[in-house]
Amino acid sequence: MNKLYTKLELLYSRITGNVAFYPSLIAFMGLALGFLMSYAEQQGISKYLIDTVPALVINDADTARTLLSTFIGGIFSLMVFSFSMVMLILNQASSNYSPRILPGLIANKRHQVVLGFYIAVIIYCIIILLSIEPEQSKTQLPGFAVLIGIVLSIHVLAAFIYFIHSISQAIQINNIIDRIYNVSRHRIQQLIDTESDPKGVAVFNDSDSWQSYTTKFSGHLNDIALDSLVDFCNEHSCKVSLLVPKGSFVLDSTKIVSVNKDLDEEAIEALRSCFGFSRSEIVKNNYILGFKQLTEIAVKAMSPGINDPGTAITCLDYLTELFVLRMQKRDNSFVTDKDGNALVSLRTINFEEVLYFIFASLRQYCKEDFIMLHKMLQSLRYLSTSDALKDEYTEDIINQVQLIIDDANQFIKNESDLAILNKVASEVQAS
Known about the structure:
By secondary structure, this protein is of the alpha+beta class. The protein has helices at 2-16, 21-42, 45-52, 61-96, 102-106, 109-130, 143-170, 173-193, 226-236, 265-272, 287-301, 309-326, 351-366, 370-384, 391-411, 415-430, and strands at residues 211-214, 219-224, 240-242, 249-250, 255-259, 275-278, 333-336, 342-346. The chain folds into 3 domains: 2-171, no CATH class; 197-278, Aldehyde Oxidoreductase, domain 3 (Alpha-Beta Complex); 287-329 and 348-430.
């Protein structure tokens, strides 16, 4: 039963995260509204309205068919135009910024709702158009349903205007960076808020000798059914330690989890069912991807083809804020039972790894640019003086400062520039 519940939980997560989920749901609502109005017309709603409020009813069959046919063709044209424009914008974003940001733009729920509304109105108009017969009398004509179609079509025009405004805002680099930052910040804050002081964590210090189990799938580990893992641990009286971080790409037959006892085949399958894999990365599930995306945008901005140091500096400002927030999070995470006992140890990417790989990418592509090297040192100086700084992170920051100075000494030839960089570096090391 737990295995079935876990599969349903992971299936629900995948379905609701699919780009087609909201358009399909709204399109189904349009289908349901069409049949509902057809039923209402059979019950005589138009006849009642002709007798009470005749101005609300379309009482000519040719006019009704012409209107509905025009709406269907017009909305099809708007939909094709809208999403042809989306494809062009996505291509531009991929070329100018980073291909990694495309899933976030495509998964924009507001754009999905607009697409779903287009489809829903088309389906509704088709159903009502099919219900109009050539020889129908005024009282049999679905006049009120046609009026609803007119109202919905007017709203389609409003949705189209909103869509044009929204997509033009979404593609602006400042808004892209801000969205990535906000999603990452929200995810880190969630993890910080849920941290506690669990009991019995010492047992995980010996997890290297535990029995390891592999996965039968490959892809990004985006979904972990933590409640099901806790139930699994309680049911089998065991402890579980994850060997790969959430969001990492896992190859088939890779060891992803270790358990402090041997399990039978049925238990192993139940354990594997707690993990969900997909072929795409999702920032809201993995804040590290937010760091990567901001870094890649900064690196792309510094390329000779783009040459946009302002964007790179903005990305570094946002990265600095995320690093300050990341310093408040513990490097070890555990999932506990209701009594606070640690049952599951989550593999996390520690602060040193995040700091090193982000600044390594920036150093590689910005090592000849004085402005970016100076900005990177200023960022590290801010981290070194932050109230969130922990003692164990001080050495990591100083190591990055030294690496930047080493690159500067090798690639910056101007003595005045080197003097400024060394001054900032000495301030960081002194703090």
